[in-house]
Amino acid sequence: MPQSMPNVANVPPPSAGANDERAYYALSRRVYNSWFATAYDTITWPVRRLRSRVARLANIQVGTHAIDVATGTGAQARAFDEAGAKVLAIDLSPRMLGIARRKHRDRDIEFIKGDATALPALDASFDVSCVSFALHEMPASVRARVVREMARVTRPGGTVVVVDYALPRNRVWLWLVYHVVKSYERDHYVDFVHADLVALLARSGISVGTLHRALLGAAQIVIGIRR
What is the CATH number of domain 19-226? Predict the structure, then answer.
């Protein structure tokens, strides 16, 4: 396992004074430390089958050092572990981490409380970094810092994986997905699905290698390479 830095979860995130960022952190604390944490795996059931696919696309092998950012209840971290990786999993929510530790106590995964904008890991520590269905919840400024941090902790030539919402190509399905997801996700979802994710990654030194559609085009798996 790559050497971890001291837990920095209590360090205020950069630019946390901005109204949208304050609102994001406050809402995250309320939601993910509430009953929602217990129901999270049920609510996200449709994406469970993506976890092993993500591990394959990320080329996880025995001995791969991987970090799962905003791990939630640890489903993606477990898929990496089952594929042979040594996994460090980070999340802001103590309640989500508690559930993750209980669910995956049979696996050798290190779960740490931490802020994705200040990852508790050394530069170039990991072969693979991954964030799954979290960037769309963040204001653009937070999203950019998270991507920069993922690039920082990934070795040159390593893999950066983003799994998140996308807009389907079929116009009818696009309309339905967009309005259904928009009805329960935060306002940042709209900004995320219309933003240029490839450009965001490029600004942090990550080149997109492949982009894979999933869930009938309602989700995407982006495989990037750290330059």
Answer: 3.40.50.150
